[in-house]
Amino acid sequence: MNVSLLGGWLPWTLRILTVVLLVLLVVATGRRNRRWYLTRLPILLAAGAVAAVASVFVVRDLMDISDPLPTSLWYWIGCAPIAIGAGIIGWRGGRWWRRAAAPFALVLALLTAGETLNMSLGYYPTAADMYGELTNQNLPAQVTLKQLRGIHGNTDTGRIVAVNIPDVPSGFGHRTEYIYLPPAWFRSTHRPKLPVVEMVAGAYEVPDNWIRSGQAVKTADAFAAAHHGYAPILVFVDATGGFNVDSECVNGAAGNAADHLVKDIPRYVSRVFGTATDAKHWAVAGWSMGGTCAVTLAVTHPDVFGHFVDMAGDSGPNLGDKPTTIAKLYKGDAAAWAANDPLTVLAHHGPYPKGTTGYFTTGDQETAHLRSAKELSAAAKKAGIGNRVVVTPGKHSWTFAVDAFARSLPWLAWQVGSPDARGV
User: Fold this and answer.
1) Which of 60, 150, 164, 285 sits most deeply, having the most CB atoms within 10 A of its CB?
2) Residue 262 banded pLDDT, cuts 50, 70, 90
3) Cis omega before residue 169 (within 30°)?
4) 129 pLDDT higher than 60
5) What DSSP string describes 279-309?
6) Separation between Cα atoms, residue 181 and residue 305, nearest integer Å
7) What is the model's pTM?
8) Beta carbons of 122 and 69 less than 8 angstroms apart
9) Domains of the chain: residue spans and CATH
10) Helix, strand, or coil here: 177?
């Protein structure tokens, strides 16, 4: 189950099997049939091309996914109609193996298309991650709150706790959220007041994506191992309330997402887990929409978050252009847009508390996000927020997010005051 879905033998095996089976199916169907090659096969190839183009339209226009996707994805989608057509045409009078080959080729083509998309997005690193999420399995090292009370002494790894945080006062309907507690938290019945980082994923995500796709717990455990068991507590939040909801972490048409993140969660986490409470010991970090959320929440709520990490976020909450964002996200309230637009807020805000810091990072293939990061960085510095911009190889994918969090965690741990962290 730990076989990689992002490289290695499995993706290539799927591709090779799909091509071989489609070729055999086409050759067997057209055997001693000139009409097949002159008329029917060209029609199926045209149908495949139409399916590929239609998929591009559905993804980019109807699903509003603008991030670049691999060209090979559309090729594998286009293989599906060829398998269907060859199966229908060759069904009558065809041998049993040819009848079985057509649906098998269709399944392989769709699996290969899905695997190609997964490799591009870095969504499921391994088969175990995919199986775990799709079947709602417990996360590795997950325990209940009741079990947590009985864990004391030395441990090399942290624990993950699933929590149902009361939506008071926000009223924001949300899914199960998760909290990572580092090894040092378990060494005494007198729990250390550790710093906290809220982790926000992108749109069309689930709260545990930072754990399965972003490998944040593995990264935090590795950091803790090098720092006598100390690392920040990580809270994997639900900033949207649903998979196909884009709240942009603001109070708006999708509910009071911001209130949940800045009111509900800090109150609950500090009360239940005895964490630090001062803003200088709290941070928010996120990728994609989560990156936008991180900088937005930090500049609009410096009394809650003293630090942020923006990984490939936009310049501000948006659902397209400004008029569309105001209409859809803020229900037509232009003042609400201005109150949550980081550049507008930074331009009119007084000096931020001393020690407020930020970290912007993008992949070198993300021109628009890099431009946003530089613009936000300059505005933040003018407002007294110390920050840096880090560009690394990569594109807009979870693969980039995994590396970005690993690179930023030492800096972030130092900023929030994690014990034994060193300045970087």
Assistant:
1) 285
2) very high
3) yes
4) yes
5) GGGEEEEEETHHHHHHHHHHHH-TTT-SEEE
6) 19
7) 0.88
8) no
9) 9-121 (no CATH), 139-416 (3.40.50.1820)
10) strand
